[in-house]
Amino acid sequence: MNIIMLGAGYVGLVSGACFAEFGVNVTCVDPDEAKITRLHDGIIPIYEPGLDDLVKKNIEAGRLNFATSLTKCATQVDAIFIAVGTPTRRGDGHADLSYVYQAARDVAAYLTSDHFTVVVTKSTVPIGTGREVERIIRETSPSANFGVASNPEFLREGSAIGDFMRPDRVVFGTNSEKAAEVMKALYRPLYLLETPIVQTTLESSELTKYAGNAFLATKITFINEMADLCEKVGANVQDVARGIGLDGRIGKKFLHAGPGYGGSCFPKDTLALVKTAQQVGSPVRIVETVVDINAKRKAHMAERVIAAAGGNVKGKKVAVLGVSFKPNTDDMRDSVALDVIPALQKAGAIIQAFDPVAMSEAAKLLPDVVWMKDTYETIADACVAVILTEWNEFRSLDFKRAKSLMAAPILVDLRNIYKPEEMAQTGFAYTSIGR
Q1: Are residues 154 and 89 in the same domain?
Q2: Would you say 336 and 414 are in contact if contact means Cβ atoms under 8 Å apart?
Q3: For residues 163-188, average pLDDT
Q4: Which runs of consecutive H residues, i.e. helices, occur in 118-201?
Q5: Smallest Cα–Cα separation from 121: which of 163, 159, 79?
Q6: What is the DSSP letter of 432?
């Protein structure tokens, strides 16, 4: 089979490489000439464990190619996936669909009347987008022979290849039987592994993605609120999370208290769902509350750090360990660091920070930060250290060495990677979440 992936960003590149691994011939199309040149040379523009080897393997096998436009691709492909960005639109919170609709127009000019092609929205898009993509293509190219499908991605940054190759489920929606047959053929390797394949309408598929992310964001926000309550009543949120997570109806995943959710999906998708629901007159009050609580929580985290440092960080060095929104990625989108670091700087702190992979991306967004080469250089002379991202290398700190380097032995652990009873033996003043 032959497919085109429009967009060589995170979703497009990972999906394209994984389809190529299935034996599909894939061309990733992106207008960024510099990016395409680097990809031809095997240079990956994003950090994702295992992706560089997978891309290289399939380039060498001739199954994965790159181009800067559809006109440079071979004709008569079985499917064209739209995997372009859908960022939050400035001013109103809706998803910006301009890239998706431009892609639809580009695709319309490429389609022919003598060969059937499925146009698939892989990007996370609001309900009704697939119908609009179909309308745009039919209006632009009335003779085009095509069907439209929605195929949302469920990729977690840091484990995206495993999520694609061994997913919990594959969801696609379409009102075309011919399109459904193409989608089933593309995912045949997963069908043979008895992966659940959920076929729906376009609208149900689009809403499934938003509903899934909103539910997970709600779980995170719920346990964060329980953490706040635990601090007031003397309970331990980790014990509470384990106690409720062992209930099969609830499950243990996404019950880890912390500074609030971030990343490329949850913030924009929950907000887009809220806006879509309001627009059609069926507001989702729970999700609205989740969005509000999470925003306020991230803003409040700097206050915890300042309080742990004695209430004043003016002119003092504060060590920040980890700035990416989660481990195993260099993604800075909606990272809690983007709230905490500016707030600490506003309070007069001098920020020394270290992240294993995200510093080059973070430096574009966080001015006046002193970027350090390792953990111990970062904490030197700091009045307080704060763990913002739970990278593995922060899980086994040498506290004797750390205590000798710091101006004061104070650690704020916003990811709960250490146990309070063990920290009491190190001589550190220790602050965590919900314990």
Answers
A1: yes
A2: yes
A3: 97
A4: 129-140, 160-165, 177-186, 188-192
A5: 79
A6: -
One domain, residues 31 and 180: yes
The DSSP bridge pattern shows strands 410-413 and 429-431 to be parallel
Round to whole Å and give the CA distance between 221 and 288: 12
Q: Residue 335: which CATH number?
A: 3.40.50.720
In a domain, 205, yes or no: no
- How far apart are the C-alpha atoms of 356 and 372, rounded to whole Å? 10
Is residue 20 within 8 A of residue 64, CB to CB? The reply is: yes
Determine contact, residues 350/370, Cβ cutoff 8 Å: yes
Question: 351 lies in which domain range?
Answer: 300-431
pLDDT tens sequence across 258-296: 999 999 889 999 999 999 999 999 999 999 999 999 999
Query: What do you get for the CA distance between the two ends of the chain, in Å?
Result: 54
Instruction: From the candidates 18, 28, 230, 265, give the one annotated as an active-site residue.
Output: 265
* Among 329, 336, 318, 326, residue whose Cα is nearest residue 412: 318
- 28 catalytically annotated: no
